[in-house]
Amino acid sequence: MVARRDAAEAPEEFLRALAALRAATPRPEVALEETPAPQRLAPHAVALTADVTTAGEEDELATGRFVLLHDPVGHEAWAGTFRVVTYVRADLEPEMAVDPLLAGVGWAWLTESLEGHGASFTAASGTVTRVSSESFGAIAEETGSAQIEIRASWTPLDEGFDAHLLAWCDLLCTTAGLPPVAPGVLTLARRRPGSR
After folding, report:
1. Which of these, 20, 12, 47, lies nearest to 32 by C-alpha position?
2. For 22, left (φ over 0), alpha (ψ -120 to 50), or beta?
3. What residue numbers bound the domain in which 136 lies?
4. How many Cβ atoms from other residues are within 10 Å of residue 25's Cβ?
5. Residue 67, domain member (yes or no)
6. Which end of the chain has less Cβ packing within 10 Å, N or C?
7. How many domains does the chain have?
8. pLDDT of 108-134, one tens digit each?
9. Does residue 188 fall inside a structural domain?
10. 143, HSE (Cβ side, Cα atoms, 13 Å)
């Protein structure tokens, strides 16, 4: 959904960006959906949410939000007129959460996804957070859990907005533990052990 102003009032460059995002086709494991965009961050915005699942399974492997902001007069902190703001969350194996290299690897997944899709960008910033929990007392029998969260923003340097979205979708798949797919290669549904 487009924030604040009706799409008919949006500048042509934002409408082109919107069309590119809507035409993007991610991997089949990624379910994209337009959602209400933030109202106060920019005069024009579009937001999408995504969940990663495998065929035949309802378990969510990763989830996230992708927001494209546009201010026709530009924004000094963005170093441009567009800004991508994203969030990714996925479950981890508890032993991965204690790996001291995890944060750097998480950030590398983002930059490598962008570069792999030829998505030119500048002014990238963000955080990689690992969350680990262990149960005690009456719930001590429950197994511990761990998650990774990647919050990032960057300024696109060209109008290949679909490449930015697809790179972000690949980041979701990577954090979900899915293997990478080479361009032009179709993926087959992944089976879990014991499934028929």
Report:
1. 47
2. alpha
3. 7-175
4. 11
5. yes
6. C
7. 1
8. 999 999 999 999 999 999 999 988 777
9. no
10. 6
Annotate 179-196 with b (16+ C-beta within 10 A) or e (fewer). Answer: eeeeeeeeeeeeeeeeee
What are the helix (H) ranges across the chain?
Answer: 12-23, 94-97, 102-116, 161-175
Q: Which of 84, 81, 114 is nearest to 13 (CA)?
A: 81
Contact 84, 153 (CB under 8 A): yes
Identify the residue with better confidence: 66 or 77. 66
- With CA atoms as reference, report the closest residue to 14 among 110, 60, 103, 81: 81
In the chain the beta strands, taken as DSSP E runs, fall at 30-35, 44-52, 62-75, 80-92, 121-133, 145-156
The pLDDT tens digits for 17-74 are 999 999 999 999 999 999 999 888 899 999 999 999 986 667 788 999 999 999 999 8
Q: Which residues, 6+ apart, have CB-to-CB distance to 85 below 8 Å?
A: 41, 66, 67, 69, 152, 153
Q: Give the number of C-alpha atoms closer than 13 A to the C-alpha of residue 114, restricted to the C-beta side.
A: 21
Query: Residue 120 class from Cβ within 10 Å (0-12 exposed, 13-18 middle, 19+ buried)?
Result: middle
Q: Which residue has the tokens 């899709």?
A: 117
Is residue 183 in a domain? Answer: no
Q: How many residues does the chain have?
A: 196
